[in-house]
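Input (structure):
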């Protein structure tokens, strides 16, 4: 067994070219730190298996079924030999020696009560993009609904909130696109909850990290481009039906796991009032799709 500083885990699902570009950027930009690249394939049918199974630069772990994001990473971590694990989306490109920067920050702050590190992600034009999110709650749902209503009413285009200019700042949840953490922490918490398939699993995981008093931080020194959506095979800025369904399902699972039954029921009521009407008026969705989302919400 060859131990390394960092195990980099990438989940591939029919994103052969994106994953290959991500791997190339890691190899091109990473130095002065030992690492391994573990690619977990979620039963791709785009030629990924044929390509990556012969790539000697990586550990290739094929799955016979699509495990989703969380369980896919859990599988990858089973094969990890690093002191740290770096969960990296297939639709990311390293711009600088990001792996080393993450590693150095953790090593220099071992007594800093840090659970997870991420960075301020950028798009292909190097403009700052979504890099963190929030724990789910009733108040958060109401705030999001009010913002959406105001934006629609006054025709305000949605813009990502400006992030603090600090070199290091604390967040609720580091985006799942780039999560860097100690391997021992991941294993102690038994990884991602298998009840999630896609969306919400990193929020639930980091809620457990917060519950044991560890911080989730963004640091600016690592530079990573996030193409955002490439690994979802989506060319539209609007979320697809499948994405909306999985997002809402993840929200409900999260609330049920971390709050009492009364809170869960109130959350469903708030979602029925603030979220479901938007679904009803969305002409992209069929009546059957709308009924399916309704069943998800109220059972």
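Output (sequence):
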């Amino acid at each position: 067994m060859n131990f390394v500083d960092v195990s980099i885990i990438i989940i591939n699902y029919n994103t052969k070219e994106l994953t290959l570009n991500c791997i190339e950027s890691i190899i091109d930009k990473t130095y002065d730190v030992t690492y391994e690249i573990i690619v977990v394939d979620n039963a791709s049918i785009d030629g990924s298996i044929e390509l990556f199974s012969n790539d000697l630069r990586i550990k290739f772990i094929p799955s016979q079924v699509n495990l989703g994001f969380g369980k896919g990473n859990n599988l990858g971590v089973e094969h990890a030999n690093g002191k740290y694990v770096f969960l990296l989306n297939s639709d990311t490109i390293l711009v600088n020696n990001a792996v080393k920067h993450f590693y150095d920050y953790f090593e220099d702050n071992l007594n800093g009560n840090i659970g997870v590190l991420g960075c301020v992600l950028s798009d292909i034009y190097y403009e700052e993009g979504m890099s963190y999110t929030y724990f789910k709650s009733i108040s958060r749902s109401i705030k999001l609904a009010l913002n959406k209503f105001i934006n629609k009413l006054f025709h305000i285009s949605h813009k990502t909130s400006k992030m603090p200019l600090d070199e290091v700042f604390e967040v609720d949840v580091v985006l799942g696109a780039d999560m860097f953490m100690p391997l021992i922490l991941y294993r102690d918490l038994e990884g991602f909850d298998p009840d999630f398939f896609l969306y919400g699993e990193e929020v639930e995981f980091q809620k457990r990290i917060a519950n044991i008093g560890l911080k989730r931080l963004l640091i600016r020194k690592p530079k990573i481009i996030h193409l955002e959506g490439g690994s979802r095979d989506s060319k539209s800025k609007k979320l697809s039906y499948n994405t909306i369904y999985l997002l809402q399902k993840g929200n409900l699972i999260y609330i049920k796991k971390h709050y009492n039954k009364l809170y869960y029921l109130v959350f469903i009521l708030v979602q029925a009032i603030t979220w479901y009407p938007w679904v009803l008026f969305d002409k992209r969705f069929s009546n059957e799709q709308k009924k399916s989302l309704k069943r998800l919400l109220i059972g």
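Notes: DSSP finds eleven helices and twelve strands in the chain. Residues 138-157+235-299 form one domain.
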